[in-house]
Amino acid sequence: MNFISETQNKITEAQHNKNLPMLRKIKQSIEEKLERISITINSLNTLQRIIDNELFVERPRDEIVEDYDGWLKLIKRKRMTSEIIPGTKKIYITNSIAVNAREVATFSDVKQDGVLYYIASCNHFAIVINNILLHGNIGTIYTNDNKPKYVKSCTTTPKCSRIDTCTFYHDPLEFVESSDVRNFVNGAWIYNSDKTKYGWRRFGSLDNIDTDIMGVKPIDISDTKARTMHDILCLIAMIENT
Ligand SMILES: [Zn+2]
């Protein structure tokens, strides 16, 4: 006879005999049994966690890095070789910094699939998001106004014929022979709603976005595209090289 039916019989008998001390004793024995079951369930859960950890021992380990002031914690996820997207390879931006990208011949080969592409002929990376093509490379950020190069787009008309010496930026989509990399003034990342400084960020603050949108010009869109691509590449370079 098992514990449940045995206990049920005892309860019925004790109820019938109005035996209160017996009912109390049965209750105590059930409680003791429950406590043992609870200990067993805890052991089972612990066991399951150990098994899970064993099974996923190959997963990348997350790393928690404490900031210098001790209150900001960053989590760095270590990449595994198996996570590298098939058909991509390391493209070196400097001698030591590389990002993984899929090399293609032209901008028209860039697909909208979340993969970073690289067009070697112009040394530009490219992605497509929401049908918007972003392209570029990591440029220089000038911290003073000392003769910045490739910060403004070349608007020479008729079309600039001396792109080897011209200090304005020539977009490889417009100038097939160009491999210029767009550079920036550091103000490009500073929001400046009054539009007095060239190249500074003029759109993106929610409190002014309804009015700022009315002043947006094509140059603001092309500047933002270039800056965004620069930032995306910086992000990927940081993640993939640390
Ligand atoms: Zn030019």
Mean pLDDT: 85
State the helical fraction: 25-40%
| Side-by-side strand order of the widest sheet | 3-4-5-6-7
| Structural class computed from helices and strand pairing | alpha/beta
- Helix-strand pattern: HHEEEEEEEEEHH
Question: pLDDT under 50 segments (min length 5)?
Answer: none
Task: Give the helix tally.
Answer: 4
Bound molecules: zinc ion
Query: How far is the N terminus from the C terminus?
Result: 64 Å
Biggest β-sheet description: 5 strands, mixed
Q: Total strand count, please? A: 9
Global morphology: elongated
Explain the layout of strands and helices.
Elements: H1 3-16, H2 20-55, E1 62-66, E2 73-77, E3 89-92, E4 98-104, E5 117-119, E6 124-129, E7 132-136, E8 141-142, E9 184-185, H3 209-212, H4 218-240
Parallel strand pairs: 4-5, 8-9
Antiparallel strand pairs: 1-2, 3-4, 5-6, 6-7
Helix pairs in contact: 1-2
Bound molecules: zinc ion.
The site of zinc ion has 7 residues, from loops.
What features would you describe in this structure?
With about 240 residues, this protein is α/β, with parallel strands linked by helices. The protein folds into two domains: about 5-75, no CATH class; about 90-240, no CATH class. Helices cover about 30% and strands about 15% of the residues. The chain has four helices and nine strands. The strands form three sheets. The protein has a five-stranded mixed β-sheet with strand order 3-4-5-6-7, with helices on one face. Strands 1-2 form a two-stranded antiparallel ribbon. The protein has a two-stranded parallel sheet with strand order 8-9. A hairpin with a 4-residue loop joins strand 5 and strand 6 (about 125-130). Helix 1 runs antiparallel to helix 2 (about 20-55). The mean pLDDT is about 85. The structure holds zinc ion. Zinc ion binds near residues 154, 160, 166, 168 and 170. Zinc ion binds near residues 156, 163 and 166.
